[in-house]
């Protein structure tokens, strides 16, 4: 029709020109709203992480205990309830489960075709397993191997294990209690008569003393033997020997909690700084260079702000205000008069919190309760930060409202784009009809002119 284009092609070209302005506007709005939404979600994750660190100060950071044993005779585990102190441990004997065996020529050797085979565990009559040899194998004689399987798979097995030990020519049917201790000794009989098994290992309780107190246990694992302290016994002491179990404050755990808090705090403030500044990729490159140049920052949580997100929230004064209030809340003195600088937490040359580990360790060893008060007493650093972030982190708080608003704006842009697409499709059909009619008229005139 024109320059060799068809009516459809010409219509498409006109529509592309006509819709270009609104397409660009909608795309730009959609990209802006999505970028802001992603930024708020990023900040929300950082707030959640920082909130979790704050919560840990109240529940874990200053309440942990650690344990150590002076040798390898035992291991100790502790909870926060464990009292600090040193305990002298002497292990006289370990608990063990009884083992009985009986010799057979092979695992296929047949047992008596009748009689009641019974195993009694301890003294409780209810802890007894009985097997009627005349019925359990359909009237046929049972082999040693079959008896092993029947015992192990029996639904009424109260706590015993059968196994076969191959000695290189003979078979030993071994019966063992699954639990150690005198209370779990075994009695094996056939029709009420001793089955003739040999005791290879006797049932016995663990015997020990802790700070001179005599203790017996059916197990080598003594749970809560002292409030919050559990022991796993591994070997015995000789005459005059003993181990020392030491329970003390978990300063290392507290230091880790403090450093994790500092990292989370720095990450959040750095993200706010980047998201609210109208700068390009040089901000990320600058921060990355700082982290590489300062070896002490190697354990900091790395920023996750992307290059295209720099400055996306520059118009949000509430986020800037949040950043300012967070800084103010930790620069003031704690209720007990101490400051973060007193325990080795100060600002570095890049405006980030930095931990002097030596100073923090010395402060914890000097007066851990005073440091705990800084973070956990009424009006502490934890309380202040939680109060500052609460309007943002509450259910249906500021962060939820901001995200809901952006979700609504994105929905409206998508709806406008759908209406625009529909309108442009209608315009295309109008143009197509017009140019198709024009093309038909031109073809008719061309055909008519060829007659002259």
What's this, in brief?
The protein is of the alpha+beta class and 452 residues long. It has helices at 7-61, 133-136, 144-153, 251-275, 282-293, 317-331, 357-376, 381-393, 398-449; strands spanning 65-69, 74-78, 85-93, 99-104, 116-121, 128-132, 160-166, 171-177, 186-190, 193-194, 198-201, 206-210, 213-217, 221-226, 229-233, 243-249, 345-347, 353-355. It is built from nine helices and 18 strands.
Describe the structure.
The protein has 452 residues and is an alpha+beta fold. The protein folds into three domains: 12-62 and 252-402, no CATH class; 65-94 and 205-249, no CATH class; 99-201, Alpha-Beta Plaits, CATH 3.30.70. Helices cover 46% and strands 21% of the residues. It has nine helices and 18 strands. It has helices spanning 7-61, 133-136, 144-153, 251-275, 282-293, 317-331, 357-376, 381-393, 398-449; strands at residues 65-69, 74-78, 85-93, 99-104, 116-121, 128-132, 160-166, 171-177, 186-190, 193-194, 198-201, 206-210, 213-217, 221-226, 229-233, 243-249, 345-347, 353-355. The protein has a five-stranded antiparallel beta sheet, with no helix packed on it. The chain has a four-stranded antiparallel beta sheet with strand order 7-8-4-11, with helices on one face. A hairpin with a 2-residue loop joins strand 9 and strand 10.
